[in-house]
Design a protein that fits this description.
Distance between the termini: 49 Å
CATH architecture of the largest domain: 2-Layer Sandwich
Radius of gyration: 22 Å
Structural class: alpha+beta
Shape: elongated
Number of strands: 5
Largest sheet: 5 strands, antiparallel
Number of domains: 2
Oligomer: single chain
Length: 304
């Protein structure tokens, strides 16, 4: 029997997503008057969504029950407008419906990182940087990224995944200043990728593992929130230097569309810039200096 939190086929995914978005939309925000009828559950009724999207109630029922996912682009646009979907949610709706282009078949095994991309990481000694797959596998990293986040080289390759570490690794989890926010963003990114590649066995295995082991993941996965790439700012509470606030820069790799280069930068002359610089100096110091108790380390001023 399939676990409640595991990834469904594309047909079920479309229906579940429509139901979840219908349930969170306040009828008043959709411009619908109060008809005086008692609502057993919050959100839009099926007939109200059908009215707003100019389709039949039976068609909404068939979509939500997974009896069809072949939808014309005009109808999808009408549904997205009626549900007041955000841009990421609208893109996700197009992805899980039949009008979306079929994603290329993934090659088995972990993707290869181009040698020149690895060289680029090594030329950025003062900037933590990594190459990630679309499902957030850490494929390559530089010394600064290991100093900031964790020693990826000490982990088995199957465990080098940012989302898995965020939920299942206690030390990695403790790095986040606001773990719930960061974790929900991770789930939204993974849900977006699951819609794009519903038959990716590695992604489905990751979703299954996290669903079984973490109740928060199960809850947030079921909410069907989705998010694509965007500008991010994250604050980490590093055990050596304390709070560090960084801008997360994401760059696509044209020669490897399923990979992205991610770099963490700080504001010049900020306390976080000083903290990161100190951390990198500390991490490259001789082993004898690194072994000193942390309370004796002269730290830069903490942020805020």
């Amino acid at each position: 029997m399939e676990h409640q939190g595991t990834h469904h086929s594309g047909t079920h995914e479309l229906g579940e997503f429509l139901r979840s978005r219908r349930a969170v939309l306040d009828p008043r925000d959709a411009g619908l008057p109060d008809d005086g009828r008692l609502r057993r559950v919050p959100g839009l009724r099926r007939e109200e969504l059908a009215q707003l999207a100019h389709v039949s109630v039976d068609y909404i029922v068939r979509l939500e029950q997974g009896r069809t996912r072949r939808v014309s682009r005009p109808v999808l646009d009408a549904l997205a407008d009626a549900l007041q979907l955000a841009p990421d949610e609208r893109a996700y709706l197009l992805t899980v419906a039949d009008v979306a282009p079929t994603a290329p078949t993934r090659r088995p095994g972990r993707p290869e990182v181009a040698p020149r991309l690895r060289q680029l990481l090594d030329t950025m000694p003062d900037i933590p940087a990594m190459v990630l797959s679309r499902r957030m596998d850490v494929l390559a990293w530089n010394h600064a990224a290991a100093a900031l986040l964790t020693d990826f080289g000490a982990l088995p390759p199957a465990e080098r995944n940012l989302i898995r570490l965020t939920f299942l690794d206690a030390d990695f989890r403790a790095l986040y200043d606001d773990w719930p926010r960061a974790a929900r963003e991770c789930v939204a990114v993974l849900r977006m990728e699951a819609g794009r590649t519903p038959n990716d066995p590695a992604l489905n295995a990751l979703v299954g593992e996290l669903s079984v082991q973490d109740p928060d993941f199960r809850t947030w996965w079921a909410s069907h929130q989705v998010r694509g790439p965007r500008q991010l700012t994250k604050t980490y509470r590093h055990p050596v230097v304390g709070p560090v606030t960084l801008d997360v820069q994401q760059f696509s790799v044209e020669t490897h569309p399923d990979q992205q280069l991610v770099a963490y930068t700080t504001e010049p002359d900020s306390p976080s810039h000083d903290s990161l610089r100190f951390l990198l100096q500390w991490s490259t110091a001789p082993d004898g200096h690194q072994a000193e108790p942390r309370r004796k380390i002269q730290r830069p001023p903490a942020v805020g």
